Amino acid sequence: MYAGIESGGTKWVCAVGTGPDDVRAVERFPTTTPAETVGRAIEFFRRHNGIQTIRAIGVGSFGPVDLNPQSRHYGHITTTPKPGWQFADIAGPLGRAFDVPVGFDTDVNAAALGEFRWGAARRPQGLDTFVYFTVGTGIGGGAMVNGKLLHGMLHPEMGHMILPRDPVRDPFEGACKFHGACLEGLASGPAMEQRWGVRAEDLPADHPAWALEAHYLALGVVNAISILSPQRVILGGGVMGQRHLFPLIRAEVKALLRDYLKVPQILERIEDYIVPPDLGDRAGVLGAIALAEQAFDSSR
Amino acid sequence: MYAGIESGGTKWVCAVGTGPDDVRAVERFPTTTPAETVGRAIEFFRRHNGIQTIRAIGVGSFGPVDLNPQSRHYGHITTTPKPGWQFADIAGPLGRAFDVPVGFDTDVNAAALGEFRWGAARRPQGLDTFVYFTVGTGIGGGAMVNGKLLHGMLHPEMGHMILPRDPVRDPFEGACKFHGACLEGLASGPAMEQRWGVRAEDLPADHPAWALEAHYLALGVVNAISILSPQRVILGGGVMGQRHLFPLIRAEVKALLRDYLKVPQILERIEDYIVPPDLGDRAGVLGAIALAEQAFDSSR
Q1: Are residues A270 and A287 in the same domain?
Q2: What pLDDT score does A13 carry?
Q3: Tell me, what's the pLDDT at B126?
Q4: Domain of A264, in residue numbers
Q5: Nearest C-alpha in B relative to A164
Q6: Is this prediction's pTM over 0.95?
Q7: Site from A145, A226, A263, A266 to mutate, B interface, most B CB atoms within 10 angstroms
């Protein structure tokens, strides 16, 4: 049995199990202090560790995180603005509590791994290079490249790519404290709320907000295609629960690319190219279980 | 001995050798028709194949190219606008002429491989994830990710990422026939020439053209960092021969990132992070020799 944690800035989701058809238990609780929150996760796993043995723990976390195994801050959340969480050690106390390997990555890389293992990256055949965006309170992007999660220098920060904004069409200057008009600054849930004065989920489907949202998300997808050449783009997160966004984004991606890329994936079957996660809102925590599985396998 | 071809839209560069310190012969000739151009390369290699045996051939080509080994157009240039070159088979006739394996990739991926094998990605220690941009007649980007060249769906087309343009600072709408204001449309050599009415190499170093050029290239680098998290960014090509661009780009990348990424590579040692190729203008043809070496090794 594996233990998985989706470590979000507002809540943690913990689960034990082996995959989407075998989740034995789930618990959700608010993200308070690191000590208390990690403590609650340990307590939850201990209750289940009595029944069956936890072989490894996986954590997909909000970031930025340190993924360099040579670093003394490996497995920590690092320079987050979230009070009390700067350089909080997550992997360390979990591994010590159960004396098992811990797989640790970003929340979006975990979700990408979940979709690689059990979801949208497996059909019709396994992909080895794809992107997973989550669009919600923030925007994050993870990626699998050549069959491995993408870390590179640090980890992708796809929400912070810089996009064009037409001030006539959109006078809102962007919500990102660092970059203003980056993808997250223009298209996250809070950006929508600041721009329109209404929470995103309360905007009706025919509101012009959605065409603009689709435009920015399509710009993000087009830049990810140009730079990373993914075999598929998976879009998850709270905002993408608005399923009417998908056809708008697909049409806008085609319009922005202007037939430059002559590939059937985009020209003929874009509905299979830009897709929601198969695992839905469980992608994160199931991805954490997949991280645990990977940590266990590589420890043997 | 290996044979390498840097297949450009205006000229081909062919070389035989085993690496930067052992180039036995080089020949350059203009890109005419596919049959004539491939024929001249074969003739050149035949002259040298008598003296020592060519074990494999590598080609780094202008694109778009088909890199899918399962495709019937593998090793072809595909939908290029260059007259006569649509779906030209490059790898096929070369392999048949010498009955050796052929390594085939984009010109920029080849250059990235050259820098991985012998150049800027080897110091101070080997990197496995980095980006190589070439800025000249067009703008292309290649990448090594997790130790393998990035192909994904097709291959990166980094020159076509879409960037913001401030029409007050820069009224020029961009030179790209497909996207107008993409990176290539705003920052290639021809874009500079169209914007300023003077060839890029004739603009003095204190001309405002260079600050604007550095701004656009920095936007491209920032988006590549956000999406791909490279451990280094190598900038080559004719325009980058203007070495005064490097400090401008580095300063602009730092300004655009606004300390969001708290990594020493950017905050402390950006002069080692954004660098010219060690192999200079030989990166392409030496990368092609590295592709040949790779093809030979994987054929054994």
Answers
A1: no
A2: 98
A3: 86
A4: 120-277
A5: B164
A6: yes
A7: A226
